[in-house]
Design a protein that fits this description.
- It is built from 8 helices and 10 strands.
- About 45% of the residues lie in helices and about 25% in strands.
- The protein has helices at about 40-50, 65-75, 105-115, 120-140, 140-145, 155-165, 165-190, 210-220, and strands at about 1-5, 10-20, 25-35, 35, 55-60, 85-90, 100, 150, 200-205, 225-235.
- The strands form 2 sheets. Strands 1, 2, 3, 5, 7, 8, 9 and 10 form an 8-stranded mixed sheet that branches. Strands 4-6 form a two-stranded antiparallel sheet.
- It has one domain.
């Protein structure tokens, strides 16, 4: 199953995947997110959440973690960069008009986990993040940004190598938060799975977390019914008039 696709013609695309269960009116819409994209992508996601969902389950580590802030800085400083023409993820969940659940880690929980990372990994992150940001600001292109964005239900070789290089970071940023997401999906199934009528829960998480989401839903008896592709960004920025 593909969550993020990268092609020459269509650019970077996100698959909005609908999971259904034959004996339930509850359905889940998965919105795999890339945290840097064209403004139109985030407008379209916002519109679909508002128009199609009765509940939204959204990621977002709480405030108060210097470690989380450092990781966010790896893309936040590229917001509206002239060469890229992209914006940081912009979804106003308060404006959707539906309940929003945030099952993610609190800032304190993330910071505690970050401080417990092996010293080697913290030093490596401290060196990598500023270097990557500086390189992208000076020389980065959309093509360069897109080169490792393809996301499927199986890990790519590059992702597996990154896990091996930074196992503590992978556990903190992905696996622990995957477990919280899985619990939230299970709770939603138990709360709304037997309701009469149709009830739609939108799941707005980074694409890497969609493996855990799809696996959890499959274990609960749901299956991928259909998908719709949304363009995150084209590989070449539009030529200004």
């Amino acid at each position: 199953m593909q969550f993020i696709e990268v092609t020459e013609l269509a650019g970077v695309r996100s698959a909005v995947i609908r999971f259904r269960r034959p004996d339930s009116g509850l359905e889940f819409l998965l919105f795999p997110m890339i945290h840097l994209g064209e403004a139109e992508f985030y407008r379209e996601v916002t519109s679909q959440l508002r128009g199609r969902c009765d509940l939204v389950i959204a990621e977002g580590v709480g405030k108060g973690s210097a470690g989380a802030d450092a990781l966010v800085a790896s893309y936040a400083r590229l917001d509206r960069h002239e060469r890229l023409g992209l914006v940081v993820q912009d979804i106003d969940f308060d404006s959707l008009g539906v309940p929003v659940i945030n099952p993610d880690m609190s800032g304190a929980q993330f910071e505690q986990g970050f401080r417990r990372l092996p010293l080697k990994e913290r030093v490596l992150l401290a060196a990598m993040v500023p270097a990557v940001v500086a390189g992208m600001r000076m020389f980065g292109t959309r093509r360069y940004l897109a080169r490792h964005l393809t996301t499927e239900d199986l890990l790519t070789d590059a992702e597996a190598a990154a896990e091996d290089a930074l196992p503590g970071v992978d556990d903190l940023v992905v696996r622990r938060r995957d477990r919280l997401l899985a619990r939230a999906l299970t709770d939603a199934h138990r709360a709304w799975g037997e309701r009469p009528g149709t009830f739609t829960a939108g799941v707005v998480y980074g694409a890497a977390h969609m493996r855990a989401a799809s696996r959890t839903l499959s274990e609960l008896g749901y299956h991928a019914a259909d998908a719709e592709w949304l363009t995150v960004f084209l590989l070449e920025p539009p030529v200004s008039g």
